[in-house]
Automatic annotation (TrEMBL):
It comes from the Eukaryota. It comes from Podiceps cristatus (Great crested grebe). GO terms for molecular function: pseudouridine synthase activity; RNA binding. Residues 388-401, 434-445 have a biased composition (Basic and acidic residues). Keywords: Isomerase, Ribonucleoprotein. Residues 384-471 are annotated as: Disordered. This is H/ACA ribonucleoprotein complex subunit DKC1. PANTHER family: CENTROMERE/MICROTUBULE BINDING PROTEIN CBF5, H_ACA RIBONUCLEOPROTEIN COMPLEX SUBUNIT DKC1. Residues 1-58 form the Dyskerin-like domain. It holds the Pfam family PUA.
């Protein structure tokens, strides 16, 4: 399986959770999708030309391929060339993660004066690594705030002392301004410097040699498909979005769990078929189908060791769903409780929403807890207790009511469910509280007024005493 494509590579080396599942005919291998789906769930590793802006280039591709949505992996200035990942339709869901991925550049710096030797420039470039303060250049269309960006590695490739031009390579964090880096380089050498030319050679996991294509290639591939119905060129130019996720750890799900995840269900252990070694807590992983399609990006809540020792629990929480809903059939609501509930709705023992009615058996009311109407686990635990308390029919004494009305009758079948009763009780309690607070506030006001009057009397007495003494 080392030759298998994309996310299925080394599939046999994944740890097996269970081998039992029912394959479904839905979905398809990413490389063998229908051409319309293939284009809509793909991306292009584009070699950006020199003068148009990134947004213009992306808009042209949208027009050429006749699609609705496109996005890119991080803006390049108009004069900058190189690697620009253009995501199409469904793949635009991965744009955010691509924009924050690391980048590599090759640039040319022009120094304003001569320097002693090439070694001096090489040393200066190597010192500009680690976390650096940067303020965006004047040309940038962003707010010019001071920010910290990390340079992972940088080195001098070549230097021409006659023309005072240096070629350098740099691997850096997303959002680093190479133009600012060149100015800092000039300041460090004490001669001044500026960026002359720049090319991005890697964006995320894709570099110049990873199927990079030009705008003309895209145009020709689309023309070939439109006129000759030959989609082989389009398939070569556009790559499936799964290629962007090959560096992530994988989690293989059963076909029956796929659509539930697309609708936002938690990724639980019973749905897992295989999992990769080295999954860490809070690591970003990719959840895939048995055919190698990406379902979603998720944050791991269990390590590989925990997954291997447990048989239930939440494995990961969804970060971004990639697959379209209903690509696979719905397979939830087929468990024992859900099946029993459906039968009872058909027989009329529950209403059409699955709530109890007049003919619902008492055993069902006692045993079944509907978690849709329960907000937290504490409330869920309190539901059965509330029912039993109602059955005891406790007595309440109220000053306004007569002795004959003191006893509360047990709930008849037509009475509302315990949840509604508890809501009414809460409302009554709130009203009583408000009345008490109002009464207390009135009392406080009376006390305050009495205090003020007493202080006034004391002041008058003092004034009289002072006047008498002066006389």
């Amino acid at each position: 399986t080392s030759q298998w494509p994309l996310l299925l590579k080394n599939f046999d080396k994944l740890n097996v959770m269970t081998a039992h599942y029912t394959p479904l005919p839905s979905g398809a291998n990413p490389l063998k999708r229908e051409i319309s789906d293939y284009v809509r769930s793909g991306f292009i590793n584009l070699d950006k030309p020199s003068n148009p802006s990134s947004h213009e280039v992306v808009a042209w591709i949208r027009r050429i391929l006749r699609v609705e949505k496109t996005g890119h992996s991080g803006t390049l200035d108009p004069k900058v060339t190189g690697c620009l990942i253009v995501c199409i339709e469904r793949a635009t869901r991965l744009v955010k993660s691509q924009q924050s991925a690391g980048k590599e550049y090759v640039g040319i710096v022009r120094l304003h004066n001569a320097i002693e030797s090439e070694a001096q420039l090489a040393r200066a470039i190597e010192t500009l690594t680690g976390a650096l303060f940067q303020r965006p250049p004047l040309i940038a269309a962003v707010k010019r705030q001071l920010r910290v960006r990390t340079i992972y590695e940088s080195k001098l490739v070549e230097y021409d002392p006659e023309r005072r031009l240096g070629i350098f390579w740099v691997s850096c964090e997303a959002g680093t301004y190479i133009r600012t880096l060149c100015v800092h380089l000039g300041l460090l050498l004490g001669v001044g410097g500026q960026m002359q030319e720049l090319r991005r050679v890697r964006s995320g996991i894709l570099g110049e040699k990873d199927n990079m294509v030009t705008m003309h290639d895209v145009l020709d591939a689309q023309w070939q498909y439109d006129n000759n119905k030959d989609d082989s060129y389009l398939r070569r130019v556009i790559l499936p979005l799964e290629k962007l996720l090959t560096s992530h750890k994988r989690l293989v799900m059963k076909d029956s769990a796929v659509n539930a995840i697309c609708y936002g269900a938690k990724i639980m252990l019973p749905g897992v078929l295989r999992y990769e070694d080295g999954i860490e807590l809070n690591q970003e992983i990719v959840v895939i189908t048995t055919k190698g399609e990406a379902i979603c990006l998720a944050i791991a809540l269990m390590t590989t060791a925990v997954i291997s020792t447990c048989d239930h629990g939440i494995v990961a929480k969804i970060k971004r769903v990639i697959m379209e809903r209903d690509t696979y059939p719905r397979k939830w609501g087929l468990g024992p409780k859900a099946s029993q509930k459906k039968m009872m709705i058909q027989k009329g023992l529950l209403d059409k929403h699955g709530k109890p009615n007049e003919s619902t058996p008492d055993s069902w009311k006692k045993e079944y807890v509907d978690y849709r109407w329960v907000t937290g686990w504490k409330e869920a635990a309190a539901v059965p207790r509330a029912v039993s308390e109602l059955e005891r029919a406790p007595k309440r004494k109220r000053e306004s009511e007569s002795d004959s009305e003191e006893a509360v009758t047990p709930p008849s079948p037509a009475t509302p469910p315990p949840e509604e009763l508890s809501k009414k009780e809460k409302k009554k309690k709130k009203k009583e509280k408000k009345a008490k607070e109002a009464a207390e506030s009135r009392g406080e006001q009376i006390e305050v007024t009495s205090e003020t009057t007493s202080t006034k009397k004391k002041k008058k007495k003092k004034q009289k005493e002072v006047e008498e003494s002066s006389e």
